[in-house]
Amino acid sequence: MSQNVCPGNMCAECSFRSSIFSKLNNAQLDELTASKTFNFAKKGEIIAKQGGKIKGFIFLRVGLAKLTRVNPDGREQIIGIATPNDFVGLLSIFSSKNYQYNIIAIEDCEYCCVDYDLVMNLISTNGDFAKTLLEKISQVSDLMMGTRLDLELRQLRGRVAFIICYFANEVYKSTTFNLPISRREIAELIDMRVENVVRILSEFRRDNIIKIEGTTIEIVDQEKLRWIKIHG
Amino acid sequence: MSQNVCPGNMCAECSFRSSIFSKLNNAQLDELTASKTFNFAKKGEIIAKQGGKIKGFIFLRVGLAKLTRVNPDGREQIIGIATPNDFVGLLSIFSSKNYQYNIIAIEDCEYCCVDYDLVMNLISTNGDFAKTLLEKISQVSDLMMGTRLDLELRQLRGRVAFIICYFANEVYKSTTFNLPISRREIAELIDMRVENVVRILSEFRRDNIIKIEGTTIEIVDQEKLRWIKIHG
DNA sequence: AATCAAATCTGATAAATATCAACATATATA
DNA sequence: TATATATGTTGATATTTATCAGATTTGATT
Known about the structure:
2 copies of one chain form a homodimer. Chain A is an alpha+beta fold. The first copy, chain A, has 2 domains: 2-151, Jelly Rolls; 154-231, Arc Repressor Mutant, subunit A (Orthogonal Bundle), CATH 1.10.10.10. Helix content of chain A is 42%, strand content 23%. The first copy, chain A, contains 8 helices and 12 strands. Chain A has helices at 15-19, 26-35, 116-125, 127-152, 156-171, 183-189, 194-206, 222-231; strands at residues 2-3, 37-41, 46-48, 56-62, 65-70, 76-82, 87-88, 102-105, 109-115, 176-178, 210-213, 216-219. The first copy, chain A, has a 5-stranded antiparallel beta sheet with strand order 1-2-9-4-7. In chain A, helix 5 (156-171) crosses helix 8 (222-231) and helix 6 crosses helix 7 (194-206). Chains A and B meet through helix 3 and helix 4 of A and helix 3 and helix 4 of B. Chain A binds a DNA duplex through helix 7.
């Protein structure tokens, strides 16, 4: 599903304007408006495919997407979750002609795709834009690396607590939220087995740390959850 | 230990010229030559400190350095090894005023330090330079992330095999080499306990996969080691 | 409504890893 | 040289995690 018009249609008024495109002049913004496409992806739909040719820069406007890869053994691994206003696929876009990861919608998504050559041209001709882009890339990859490093030395309970806090604090900014991914996907995201994800979630519920109602999760004991996240 | 002269003294003739600084013109190269400092760090010496103010861009010319961080629990973690011609500290330099990691020499090192403002200025004024830098950053962080992801889903034997292969193939390009880091550091690098590192190395020796003589390691059975690296 | 497939869940057990203790060996320091 | 201190090593044991098996629930499709 894809179409060429975005609400407002002007990149100058887009929320990305203030972050990544703040250093473009009016002419450059017009170029951007003319070249970009505005797209939809339903939950489960693939936005970009690992190994596929990079066509452009993908900016997520609405919804959530997961970044995944199939590792050499054929096991699927989720690298991270992209949230609105994220510049998705940042990590590999300058080092390869092909996507290193899959980008898959886990909620209905709206995203923009900006032509690759146009951005490259902007980098060459607008140094301040290049600088902003460098900062943003650095931020995103730094954050991702930090998250992976944090996760690596936690054990299972700590990892599950971490991911619950992540969705509550970073994504939904609420102690009650709809878990957008399955138990299997949680397992793939924090490197554990489905059975153990289930087990530990049940454990948290039994200990009155969280409530689970269908896909809804409510954090009841924030203190205890944070403690487990750090020490568990 | 630090001094201002580098062998040849001209950045135009430096090995980094061909990678990162290939797009600078002569005037810009002269600026670079004038502003950079050339430094030594003995084994064990700290080149940059986590939390410390970023003064410049660090380029490793000779030797090996480890990138480490102290995680919130106070446990030391090694993120990666920097090899000659690496642009060290890439990940955080554009997203923070402070180093996110320690950079510590694990062999005697020679490195250049290029003034932060100078590089920032070059980015603004030379789009092609900015593009090259983006590519390099993307490459390095992509590689690092890939390595961490690979490591995460291996178990201990596979991780130890991985790190031996890494030093043999990527760093020393020889099946015999002096292990530059201690057992403890290996443990910190691949997220395991010292005892298990020792145990598995002994196991590999007992199974005639490697020979260990002091700090020297020789890979005897490359086939078997690679198998363990992938399937172990 | 009936049926199938996938996801969720629980318990029992096996395998992997961490911890603890003890000692040997090297390396630095007084 | 003697002494302390970190590193390396091995075995026994406890803890954590994965695996296997089976049951229940959920959701989609006919």
